[in-house]
Design brief:
With 319 residues, this protein is an alpha/beta fold. Bound molecules: adenosine-5'-diphosphate (ADP) and 6-O-phosphono-beta-D-fructofuranose (F6P).
């Protein structure tokens, strides 16, 4: 392969820039040219393509967001959009693409591979909800941001003897909520993967209150939702003043942590190596401390079990 493309797609995640840098420089080291495809799959459809050199990716390793911009592209899912994307690849001589994003972006990469453009997926999302990998770029930074925010909320909850419900991101997944909840010593963690009854949460708060605890942090995943209403019900049932906070997009920004920068660099490197060996239709993943890769179909069919052991640890240590 002489020329490859790189794009970021779906929700941005801190560390995507480090991955782009790694892709560009590894490819150049291996004698390939690199085209930046801007705004995800929309850039392929619209021909929003830039040349990237080793210097184009200077001074980005420490920045959140993505210098290539990102987008969600409904048009790419249509046959017409796909044909325009392929035409752009032909026009710019793009022979393979590194796609940095989540499961949705991987599906797009699978379709492109089927149409003759080999793609390699690199996992980038703060949710850590990609089944084929134990780790996704951005997760560590997002957790650290969420923990920093909840620590601040704890100061005021403690001063007022209040209960605070904090919603963290994760539309379909509770990984961010679980790890954040453990790290902040939450009294309860609510995730979409596990059923719960608000009445049980209320009883737990009351028991802890009788045992001398006077302030409470409840971490709630976005996929559970309804923190405002839950706060009202908890306050009405317990008599404890209760507030809710939705952390929102603050979790998606900020300088990536060491873990995200290093992981992004390793994964970007691995993706380019695969393309340089003529291997497409694959995804890069982290498993048992190593960077590995899988066939994209196999990856998309994998299931990621919720870490119930970790959840039990959270329960045992929140009494
Ligand atoms: P993520 O990659 O973070 O999961 P999305 O699910 O929003 O984010 O997907 C990003 C983009 O990938 C979508 O806007 C679309 O262009 C493409 N995509 C998503 N699902 C599919 C699919 N089933 N087939 C083809 N392309 C898809
Ligand atoms: O997938 C990452 C994520 O931040 C989810 O946690 C969240 O549900 C979603 O993206 C929010 O997306 P948007 O960028 O559309 O607000």
């Amino acid at each position: 392969m002489k020329t490859i493309g790189v794009l970021t797609s779906g929700g941005d995640a801190p560390g995507m820039n480090a991955a782009v840098r790694s892709v560009v420089r590894t490819a150049i080291s291996l004698g390939m040219n690199v085209k930046g495809i801007r705004r995800g799959y929309n850039g392929l459809i619209e021909g929003d393509i830039i040349d990237l050199s080793a210097r184009s990716v200077s001074d980005i390793i420490h920045h959140g967001g993505t210098m290539l911009y990102t987008a969600r592209s409904p048009r790419f899912k249509t046959e017409e959009g796909m044909l325009e994307a392929i035409a752009t690849c032909k026009k710019y001589g793009i022979e393979g693409i590194v796609v940095i994003g989540g499961d949705g972006s991987y599906r797009g990469a699978r379709d492109l591979s089927l149409h003759g453009i080999p793609c390699v997926g690199v996992p980038g999302t703060i949710d850590n909800d990609i089944a084929s990998t134990e780790y996704t770029i951005g997760f560590d930074t997002a957790m650290n941001t969420a923990v920093e925010m909840v620590d601040k909320i704890r100061d005021t909850a403690q001063s007022h003897d209040r209960c605070s419900l904090v919603e963290v991101m994760g539309r379909h997944a509770g990984y961010l909520a679980l790890q954040t909840g453990i790290a902040v010593g939450a009294s309860e963690i609510l995730v979409p993967e596990l059923d719960f009854k608000l009445e049980d949460v209320i009883q737990k708060i009351l028991t802890m209150w009788r045992n001398g605890k006077k302030h409470f942090i409840i971490v709630v995943a976005e996929g559970v939702g309804g923190v405002d209403e839950m706060a009202k019900q908890i306050e009405a049932a317990t008599g404890i003043e209760t507030r809710s906070t939705v952390l929102g997009h603050v979790q998606r920004g900020g300088n990536p942590t060491v873990r995200d920068r290093v992981m992004a660099t390793q994964m970007g490197y691995a993706a380019v190596k695969l393309l340089s060996e003529g291997k497409g239709n694959r995804v890069v993943a982290y498993k048992d401390g190593e960077i590995v890769d899988y066939d994209i179909y196999e990856a998309l069919n994998m299931k990621k079990p919720f870490d119930i052991d970790m959840y039990e640890i959270a329960q045992a240590t929140s009494i």
